[in-house]
Amino acid sequence: MNQKGLIVVVSGFSGAGKGTLIKRLVEKHKDRYTLSVSATTRAPRPHEEDGKDYFFLSEEAFETLVKEDGLIEYAGYCQHYYGTPRDFVEDKLAEGIDVILEIEIQGALQIKAKYPEALLLFVTPPTMEELKRRLEKRATESEEIIRERLLRAREEAKGIEHYDYILVNDDVDETVKHMHRVIRSAHYTPERNEEFIQRIRAELDDI
Amino acid sequence: MNQKGLIVVVSGFSGAGKGTLIKRLVEKHKDRYTLSVSATTRAPRPHEEDGKDYFFLSEEAFETLVKEDGLIEYAGYCQHYYGTPRDFVEDKLAEGIDVILEIEIQGALQIKAKYPEALLLFVTPPTMEELKRRLEKRATESEEIIRERLLRAREEAKGIEHYDYILVNDDVDETVKHMHRVIRSAHYTPERNEEFIQRIRAELDDI
């Protein structure tokens, strides 16, 4: 069966708990999953490590990467570029490791267009009341920012049908188990196992 | 999320071990799964119980069921009819129980046409050498019957792409776990959760 790794894109509403889920999943199954490290043109923050938190690049270096098709998706955000370096991802896939990317829907669709076998997961709280509650609990955020995030959630909700699975995050441990289950399952679809299917067909012809 | 049961169709090569897998799965998770009980016009064998092993019907009763659209799939085999009664399946689905059907590809495609949300699983040994070995180990079967089954396997292999998942049965316990994982995952696709998606969209509009 499919020994190659899969690209796993995780999107979902701000406040849905994507970051925590992904962190726990990767910690729990270090042999199976790795987090993609993004490239960015923004300056490193204190304690951020080049090659671990981000690949920190100059604008020129980033644009060269884009020209050479060295990013599998990228986007501009707050006057900086962010993108996913192809080499890192493809090396890990070849080692049989699933690469987890936390990106929003535009990036997710770019990935799916280039890697049709990629798995797209959408994370949501059980209700939108709960989403609002979680955003309000982050004391750091103003009324206005909460409002903005809810409006963005409304936009994001329009794209859910593009995703392969919905993960309702009402309990982190349960949802991490679930996420693992869904990703493992995805390795066993016919479209991700063309080689295996061709092999058993050839074997049956030879018998 | 989706509280309704799913129809789970299990097909695969004769000798792949479908029957054992299904039996174990249902024993292990009695609250989640039930086996569909087929209707047939063939006579009961000793120890077979009506309503448990099969619903034993006269030819007239069977044909009436067909006319009244009371079967979700049926086929003739060795001068007898076999079919899946709709009421049993739909009652269980409404209770939130997944109904497992062991049928071959023609029946599987009939089901998928009527129930697009049905999940189709294809069971295979890891290699066709292994399939042959398993068939030969069943001492009861003649060279000719083995040959016939391998030829049928060749036909069946052409339809694998119609299935949602391939289960490689090299270890029964592992494959049962896997089967459970794959079926649980299937409950979380967007197309099986249209109601949930509509609800969160409506909630976001109201906030």
Keywords:
five-stranded parallel β-sheet; homodimer; alpha/beta; four-stranded mixed β-sheet; 207 residues; 8 helices; Rossmann fold
Provide an overview of this structure.
The structure is a homodimer of 207-residue chains. With 207 residues, chain A is of the alpha/beta class. Chain A has a domain at 7-36 and 97-206: Rossmann fold (3-Layer(aba) Sandwich). Chain A is built from eight helices and nine strands. In chain A, strands 2-7-1-8-9 form a five-stranded parallel beta sheet, with helices on both faces. A four-stranded mixed beta sheet of chain A has the order 4-3-6-5. In chain A, a hairpin with a 2-residue loop joins strand 5 (71-77) and strand 6. In chain A, helix 5 (128-137) packs antiparallel against helix 6. Chain A is globular. The mean pLDDT of chain A is 92. The A-B interface holds A 1, 122, 124, 127-129, 132, 150, 153-154, 157-158, 160-161, 163-168, 178, 181-182, 184-186, 188-191, 193, 196-197, 200-201, 203-207 and B 1, 122, 124, 127-129, 132, 150, 153-154, 157-158, 160-161, 163-168, 178, 181-182, 184-185, 188-191, 193, 196-197, 200-201, 203-205, 207.
